[in-house]
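hi! just following up on the protien thing from before. the input was this:
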Amino acid sequence: MHRLDARVKLLAALAFIFAATLVPAGEWAAFALLAALLAIVVAASRLPPLLVLRRSALALPFLLVAIPLLFTKSGDELFAVPAVFWRWHATDAGLMALCSVLARSLLSVAAAVVLTATTPSIDLLRALEGIGVPRIIVTTVSFMYRYLSVIAEEAARLLRARDCRSVRVDRHSGGSLLWRSRVTGNIVGSLFLRSYERSERVFDAMTARGYDGELRSLAVRAPAAGQWGLLVAFVVLLIGVEVYARL
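and the predicted 3d structure came back as:
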């Protein structure tokens, strides 16, 4: 898995994510087949399963957006949640829709985790350009990845400066919530201005060195025919799962 061409892995991950998204709600057997297929890929990658599960938990906070489905789908009532002037009624159809959204989210994020854990970032950026993603998007993502740590260091310096100018007596000191919000807003504004000024300096330096809007790299060889065959077989398996989910 680590030696596969990045373009093949990227296309396979995108196909898996689309397959997980297109599975109808409540088709648990299809979700189980996709999970088993993903488990085989994780085992072939020799990645720790706990690592994949821990990083896939990133999708759980976004599940809060889908909670209204529990109360808006018509069906048999499971329980009721009292509100101020009315009662929210949870239904079995809403629970099925919520669990389906959870399954799709976890499978999609887990596929992305496996992709990023087995593919270096530079190869992944080249793969994006290789499959036809617009160059401006690839360049933007590349700069974001390279300078995210720089922005994090800048934010750490701002927080360290704030701590050096503050006196902490106990946990209740420091002003009201409005005062804390104002201080946080000032820090965010200063971080934006510093990042903007640094980006201008970086761009001027790159222009002086001949940058013309294109990130050049060594020529990338085409994937072997066997790798394309593996991708086709993987896609055929996904199509089979989609057909089974709709029978």
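The longest strand covers residues 77-82.
The chain has a mean pLDDT of 83.
cheers
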